[in-house]
TrEMBL record:
<dbReference type="GO" id="GO:0003677">
    <property type="term" value="F:DNA binding"/>
</dbReference>
<keyword id="KW-0479">Metal-binding</keyword>
<dbReference type="GO" id="GO:0016787">
    <property type="term" value="F:hydrolase activity"/>
</dbReference>
<keyword id="KW-0378">Hydrolase</keyword>
<dbReference type="GO" id="GO:0004519">
    <property type="term" value="F:endonuclease activity"/>
</dbReference>
<dbReference type="GO" id="GO:0051607">
    <property type="term" value="P:defense response to virus"/>
</dbReference>
<dbReference type="InterPro" id="IPR002729">
    <property type="entry name" value="CRISPR-assoc_Cas1"/>
</dbReference>
<keyword id="KW-0238">DNA-binding</keyword>
<comment type="function">
    <text>CRISPR (clustered regularly interspaced short palindromic repeat), is an adaptive immune system that provides protection against mobile genetic elements (viruses, transposable elements and conjugative plasmids). CRISPR clusters contain spacers, sequences complementary to antecedent mobile elements, and target invading nucleic acids. CRISPR clusters are transcribed and processed into CRISPR RNA (crRNA). Acts as a dsDNA endonuclease. Involved in the integration of spacer DNA into the CRISPR cassette.</text>
</comment>
<protein>
    <recommendedName>
        <fullName>CRISPR-associated endonuclease Cas1</fullName>
        <ecNumber>3.1.-.-</ecNumber>
    </recommendedName>
</protein>
<dbReference type="GO" id="GO:0046872">
    <property type="term" value="F:metal ion binding"/>
</dbReference>
<dbReference type="InterPro" id="IPR050646">
    <property type="entry name" value="Cas1"/>
</dbReference>
<feature type="binding site">
    <location>
        <position position="222"/>
    </location>
    <ligand>
        <name>Mn(2+)</name>
    </ligand>
</feature>
<dbReference type="InterPro" id="IPR042211">
    <property type="entry name" value="CRISPR-assoc_Cas1_N"/>
</dbReference>
<keyword id="KW-0051">Antiviral defense</keyword>
<keyword id="KW-0460">Magnesium</keyword>
<dbReference type="GO" id="GO:0043571">
    <property type="term" value="P:maintenance of CRISPR repeat elements"/>
</dbReference>
């Protein structure tokens, strides 16, 4: 399937029979794509879409995601035909079960910590980090296994995440050094990139969850919040370092970045300009399409999209049986994923 990414507000979309046509504001045709080749459409900024097109996309089951110009997720349009009330009842019962959620939380967060450590190891070529620096990850895994509540699990994860971003700040090129996680607004280029990337990852996972008829708002690890897809945030956890953080590390090492590529607003927030957002999304798309040994007990390599589809399908079965062992984290049982 193909996805259209609309980066600027210099375009508009319209329908032509069974195709979608992308034009400039002056009407110059840029691209035409058959609807059957499209999985979803992501709109950044004030791109114009006709009502006729939105109706057709909804009938075809093609989701449209709206982002602010800086990449913040705003809303989406989807078809209601994918709802599965039986699967949602199983989901509701499972996510209301304290012991099921605690066990699943331990599984998901432990996987996130292992992947975070793996990413640090892969970029520690110069030996800036030593064995003692990595002890916090091993200690957190032990503490999480012994945790009695989800709040305790998240507390240990938060301590580990603080160390992860602190150490990661030493592994980027000198001109991009940072001192930890910052958001709303991001205070440096690394954080600007990952905030933008996480918003896109969140959107992909919301779509995958809905395609299987589940409710993105009924989560396991994260608490319910209005207008928040808690289950998408849960599934995001282990993919953050595998996909987004890795893409950003590669990009900062390989891409020539100038002061024209980002802006600093009055409160010190860093915002990516058009070219850099486009480059990042291209890199993220390439990474998502790379094949890796993501799946449990399967030696074959698959891309992100197939792996997520299988993961959500397994989660659906896990909800139905209320069995934690039916759900497998990415790369479970393998020494490394990438």
């Amino acid at each position: 399937m193909k996805e259209i990414l609309l980066i600027t507000d210099q375009y508009k979309l319209r329908k032509r029979e069974t195709s979608i046509v992308l034009t400039t504001l002056l009407g110059e045709e840029v691209q035409e794509v058959a609807m059957g080749m499209i999985d979803s459409i992501s709109v950044f900024g004030n791109v114009q879409l006709s009502t006729q097109l939105l109706k057709s996309l909804s009938k075809e089951g093609i989701e449209v995601y709206f982002f602010s110009k800086s990449g913040g997720y705003l809303a989406h349009v989807e078809s209601s035909y994918k709802d599965n009330s039986v699967a949602q009842r199983h989901q509701a019962r499972a996510t209301d079960d304290f012991y099921y959620c605690l066990a699943m939380s331990k599984k998901i967060i432990s996987a996130k910590i292992r992947h975070s450590k793996e990413l640090l190891l892969s970029y520690n070529e110069d030996g800036l980090l030593d064995e003692e620096d990595f002890q916090v990850f091993e200690q957190s895994l032990v503490q999480i296994e012994e945790a009695k509540t989800i709040s305790e699990v998240l507390g240990f994860e938060g301590k580990c995440a603080k160390s992860y971003f602190y150490y990661l700040g030493f592994l980027v090129p000198n001109e991009f050094r940072f001192k930890g996680r910052s958001k709303r607004p991001p205070k440096d280029l690394f954080n600007a990139f990952i905030s933008f990337g996480y918003a896109n990852l969140y959107k992909y996972l919301v779509g995958a969850i809905r395609r299987h008829g589940l409710l993105p708002s009924f989560g396991i690890v994260h608490q319910d919040k209005p207008a928040h897809a808690s289950l998408a945030s849960d599934l995001m956890e282990e993919w953050r370092s595998i996909l987004v953080d890795d893409v950003v590390m590669r990009l900062l090492r390989e891409e020539v970045i100038t002061k024209e590529d980002y802006t600093v607003n009055e409160n010190g927030g860093i915002y990516l300009e058009n070219r850099l957002r486009t480059v990042f999304l291209q890199r993220l798309s390439q990474r998502m399409n790379e094949a890796h040994p993501y799946l449990f007990s399967d030696k074959k390599r698959y891309d992100f999209f197939y792996a997520v589809d299988q993961q959500v399908n397994a989660l659906k079965r896990s909800f139905e049986e209320k069995d934690v062992e039916l759900f497998h984290t990415i790369g479970e049982g393998k020494d490394e994923v990438v």
